[in-house]
Amino acid sequence: MLSLTVVKSTDIAPFRKPLVSRPHLGNLIPNIVIGELTMVVPAQLTAEAVNQLREGIDLLLGRWSALQMAVQNEWGGRDTRQKAQQLAVDIYQWLIRPSEALYVDELENLLDDFMLSLNTEIDDGSIEEIADNLMIIHEECLEGNFASIERLRQSAPQIAAASHQMQVVNGGEDDSDSTSSSGDESMEMADGVDPTSNMADMTLNESARPAAPIVDADGWTVVSSRRNRR
């Protein structure tokens, strides 16, 4: 019998149920008996569920602070954004593999390998959180349940607004002709904006914010740890 280990859920918006850690088989339709053989047939995504899943993947990756930092700073080169878009495609293809059990460990490795390809080492626990949440939305899509994706979608306008505020502040800092009063105004705006909010920090109710990334002697960008990798 396949055993499932359920870990205690951290307070990650918009998900409010325990996260299935490993392994994960997704939703299965009743067994089909053919002669003396029993076949377990995986449930199939409907056309609507496919679109919802794709959007959910994009929304989750958009909330991943470490990935968005890498994209904005082009840590993986000038085509970092294109690489991030391809990551979403790769995740979708991984989730819809036919007749294969899905193990969250493998998804974590996929995410970890991708971030390493961007010269970024992640040790803040976000890889596990993103992987768990991707598994959740996939299972919910198989069930025709899009509630978590809808909550992600509803939070998107707030993320965009915070991003726009940061762009205004940064633009003001680059203006060499700005007066001291306008500079003070920019500083006031900066004080009112959380630098991680445009990346939609996955732990929205945590008071502690991730520290700034550190570049080690070999040129790797290290995202500081909140919790150890499993």
From TrEMBL:
The keyword rRNA-binding does not apply. Residues 163-230 are annotated as: Disordered. The keyword rRNA processing applies. It comes from the Eukaryota. Residues 195-206 have a biased composition (Polar residues). Pfam families: WGG. Keywords: rRNA processing. One of its GO terms (biological process) is rRNA processing. Belongs to the TSR2 family. PANTHER family: PRE-RRNA-PROCESSING PROTEIN TSR2 HOMOLOG. This is Pre-rRNA-processing protein TSR2 homolog.
